[in-house]
Amino acid sequence: MMDLLELFGEHPGWYFVAATLVPLLSFVLILSASALWCAARPFRDTPAGAALFNFFGGEERGRTPAYVATGAIALAFVLSLVGFLRFTIQQSEFETQIQQVQRDLYELRVKAKAAQGQDKEKWEEEIEAKENELENKEKMWESARSYAWQGHFDWLRIRPGSLRDPDRGTVLQLGYKIDSLSALMFVMVTFVASLIHLFSIGYMSEELQPEVEDHQVHTRYGLLVRRGRFGRFFMFLSLFCFSMLNLVLADNLFQVFLSWELVGICSYLLIGFYFERQSASNAANKAFITNRIGDAGFILGLLILWTNLGTFHFDELFQRLRAPLRDSHGTLQLAGRFVRGDLDPARAADGSWSLKYSPDGAQVVLFPLPQDRPEHYHGVGPDRDDRVDVFEAPKKGQHGSMPYWLLVAAGLGIFLGCVGKSAQFPLHVWLPDAMEGPTPVSALIHAATMVAAGVYLVGRCYPLFTYEALLVIAYTGGITLFIAATIAVVMTDIKKVLAYSTVSQLGYMMLALGVGGWVAGLFHLLTHAFFKALLFLCSGSVIYGCHHEQDMLKMGGLYPKMKITALTMLIGVLAIAGIPLFTGWYSKDAILAQALGFVYVHPQHLLLFLLPLGTAGLTAFYMSRLWLMTFTGKPRDEHVYEHAHESPGTMTMPLVVLAVCSVGIAWGWPIYDAQASWLEQNVHHAQHHAVLADFGNIDYTVDQEHGEYWVVAKRAEENERLYAYYNHHLAGNLALGLVVIGMVFAGLIYWKGVLDPAEAQEQFPGLHAFLMDKWRFDWLYSVVVVRPALVVGSWLAWFDLHVIDGVLHGVAYLSVLLSKWDGLFDNSVIDGLVNLVGNAIYSAGARLRNVQTGFLRSYVLFLVLAAAGIFMVLAYFVRMAAAG
Amino acid sequence: MTLTVGLTHFLLLGALLFVCGAVCMASKRNAIGILMGVELVLNAATINFVAFARYNPIFQVEGQIFALFVIVLAAAEAAIALAIVLNFYNNHLSVDVDTAEELKG
Question: Residue A490 needs a FRET pair 20 to 30 A away by CA distance; which of A231, A316, A589, A791 works?
Fold first, then answer.
């Protein structure tokens, strides 16, 4: 016990490890209880069997699984919260000190720039001292962090020497690494998941009955009646939470991949929860198969990294790929960036080459890890030491290299995995179909777990992505957010609208990550989790209250019937639309500001700003449409309206909590300052310096004084903040204008009825049909992939049936024929010979037995006669011999 | 004319004895009688050995030793044969060898 307390005291990262393992424990508990229940059921007539059977719930199993799972995730939330607080306090202590030193250093630099002659030297000495102090402070924080908040153990040893270098690629690890991003993710995931668990207890209560009638499955004998699956639902939820938390916890890509697949299988199980329904089973398959396509890319990326770098550990990957922040000369031009160059065949030695720096070389330098570097370490750069020896199989402390295109491919591969998981174009098709699962699952998938995993991983792996890969990410996000928003405008299924809005918001996050808005993207991931969970649970509450009616064309005027649901949903709508002071406002404006900054520097990518800006208005429009169609106006379907009712307390309570969070979770001081959000600042701590190195210098065209490559991460950060501040206001105001227009438009159409949506449909029938068909992606995939696959499959089946089976049948017929001939030969010739010999011996024996008379006297007679005969013959021969 | 007894006489005696034994074996139905015939045959052989030992210096020792062997052999044979006969009698209540025909082919 004391050991455990000491462990948590010394290594507070274990709070998060424990938070991860608690849902797993709950899963195992529920699973084993169910297994015992199943095992005991056939023996429930015997006393022992009945005791066991009743102990695990008997015929009517109660809510125990729900309480176990909810308790587990709530405990995980408490653990995460404690861990998060401890981390934040420790981090802010160090950060304050480091910032103080940085501020001093900055002032010193400003003074040194102004000074002349001897003064200048004096200032430079002081600057150097301050730089050393800064370095020491940062090292202290690093070591404190790696001691308390990181850890790993070897999980699997691979035969050494399986790669070119026997020291590399020999061990797979499991571990944990906590920074402020993963700590925040932990709190967010466990909090949202706890509320979703709580909501599910009410929502899934139908499954408590021993016999459930599924109204959507018709069998020959009428509606399908099946056993309730209450426990199974919560078991899967627990496994889902464990997988997601493990993914966030991971300190290496391999562990991420494990959890990644676990998340995939959980989504498959939960989307296909009502697997007797054809649509649900199809949707589960679609989600799983679509994700497999992405995972194929993920595996390729992993293999490239493993082959070339021999490790999956995030820190080691980044330290080897990105130039170190400091070398023995202090500042580096390429600090935190990829360093590219060309191998010089003229200066090659055995097992090594000389690599010459060039900004667009074909190779990228792999740096030695900091702990292996020599004391006096030179970096590689354009002005000095532009050559470095790279080794084919670098030992500790040596440089290596890998082809740049492979690194691009690895980044794109990993991103493809994220495209699948986060439902980005062109693999977004599974997410709307995933609405077939129970609504709390939709909330969990959309808000806290599965789709968040993709964005989270892009953020985590940011330093692996090259410029080309980032551009692909940005455009993928841009296309996705626009397509999804346009489809959401015409959807009438309340859950489908939300599904497409999720796809669209994920597009925002990806776009932000691609244009260097690392903080903005992940900030939006966190805020989005709250308001999207709220929106989904609200829609769940509406669906529950309307007795499983999901079509908005049958709703309307529900506000008086379900006030709590309507008001909380309104908050969610305002938050996602980006109305000031709601959470969505802070994060979406940050993304737009980042995109605007990017477009300033790269005007050719103007689309990357216009798409999200326009879509901000679209988002406001379709979300307002959703709320207005559901809750205001006249009831469109009297039957639904008559029976509608507010949901019970266990379901509305999470709504209220999430609504409060959707308003205030991102507030900072002052509240009205869009950039003062505490959440954003907290995410900022986790930002890898590579982000600043890649994008922090968006002002380098302005800063002519120092030349184009004057990039120091800290300095760049200040510039970035300046520009972001300017951008933020412009982008934010533009977006707000569009949002207001969108909402007014929605109000005019769906509330005041000034415009009739049916007229618009008639005016643009082609466009409406196109959008209703979801941009015909399903059709496209069906034509391009599914049907050709089926056609090829039918060809193969024909080939199988006729050619392969034909050959097999022919061979079989021939062997039968051959066997017949062989049998004939066997029976007549071989058996005949054998029988002949046998018969001959038998008949000879039958004759000879007459000799054996059984009379002793006749034997003696024969004996004597024979002896006499022999003697006579002998005598004859002897005489002949004597004579002749 | 004096009749000197030579090797031929001994051999003739042995042959006579052998024929007697053989005829005895071939004609008797009584198992004990057959045994007696066997003894006669063996003794005929012994006479031959001893005669050769007496008249041929090459076989001086060997002939004597073979004679001893045959006597020992005859004793052993008689013991075993009598045991067989006794058992035979226990099973058939007779020593008529013609009744021993169960194993004939």
Answer: A589
Check B98 against A851: CB less than 8 A apart: no
- Which residues have C-beta within 8 Å of that of residue A123, sequence separation ≥ 6? A108, A111, A112, A115
Contact A690, A716 (CB under 8 A): no
Helix (H, G, I), strand (E, B) or coil at A333: coil
Name the CA dihedral angle for A99, A104, A105, A109, rounded to a multiple of 10 degrees. Answer: 140
Residues 6+ apart with CB under 8 A from A438: A200, A203, A204, A233, A270, A273, A274
| Coil/strand/helix, residue A215 | strand
- For residue A765, whether the previous peptide bond is cis, meaning omega lies within 30 degrees of 0, is no
**pLDDT value at residue A246:** 93
Instruction: List Cα–Cα distances, A420 to A264, A430, A778, in angstroms.
Output: 10, 9, 15
Q: From B28, which residue of chain A is nearest by alpha-carbon distance?
A: A857
Give the pLDDT confidence score for residue A879 in this predicted structure.
92
Cβ contact, residue pair B101, A864, below 8 Å? no
Q: Say which CATH topology domain B10-96 has.
A: Helix Hairpins (1.10.287)
ω into A359 cis (within 30 of 0) = no
Q: A518-545 and A494-514 are packed helices; what angle lies between their axes, rounded to 10 degrees?
A: 180
Half-sphere exposure of A844 (CA within 13 A, CB side): 6
pTM listed for this prediction: 0.76
For residues A638 and A260, what is the distance between their CA atoms, to the nearest angstrom? Answer: 45
Q: How far apart are CA A422 and CA A444, in angstroms?
A: 13
3-state helix, strand, coil in chain A (%, to 5): 70, 5, 20
In chain A (884 residues long), the average pLDDT of successive 10-residue segments reads 77 89 92 86 83 77 86 93 91 84 76 73 81 82 83 77 57 87 91 89 81 79 82 90 92 91 90 88 90 92 88 88 73 73 77 81 86 77 73 79 91 92 86 84 79 90 90 92 90 88 92 88 90 89 83 80 88 89 87 83 85 91 89 80 80 88 82 76 80 60 35 48 67 86 85 75 77 78 84 92 92 95 92 94 90 79 88 93 85
Report d(CA A818, CA A106) in Å as an integer.
96
Is A856 an interface residue toward B (CB < 8 Å)?
yes
Measured CA to CA, the distance from residue A353 to residue A756 in angstroms comes to 72
What is the spatial distance between Cα A746 and Cα A757, in angstroms, rounded to a whole number?
Answer: 10
CA separation for the pair A155, A171 (Å, rounded)? 7
Residue A803 has a CB neighbour count (10 Å cut-off) of: 10
DSSP string, A575-604: HHHT-TTSHHHHHHHHHHHHHHHHHHH-GG
A844 shares contact with chain B (CB less than 8 Å): no
Interface contact A857, partner B, CB < 8 A: yes
Angle A518-545/A583-601 helices, nearest 10 degrees? 140
Q: How far is CA A94 from CA A82, A103, A134, A136, B3, in A?
A: 19, 14, 11, 12, 149
Helix locations, A212-313, DSSP H: 230-249, 253-271, 278-309
Residue-level pLDDT at A167: 59
Calpha distance A249→A152 (Å, rounded): 11
A864 in contact with B, Cβ within 8 Å: yes
> What secondary structure letter does DSSP report for A668?
B
Contact A477, A511 (CB under 8 A): yes
Determine how many CB atoms are found less than 10 A away from the CB of residue A1.
Answer: 5
A648 close to A565: Cβ distance less than 8 angstroms: no
Q: What pLDDT is stored for residue A391 in this prediction?
A: 80
Cβ contact, residue pair A857, B103, below 8 Å:
no
Q: For residue B101, list chain A residues with Cβ-Cβ distance below 8 A.
A: 853-855
What is the interface pTM, i.e. ipTM, of the complex? Answer: 0.82
Question: Residue A195 is which amino acid?
Answer: L
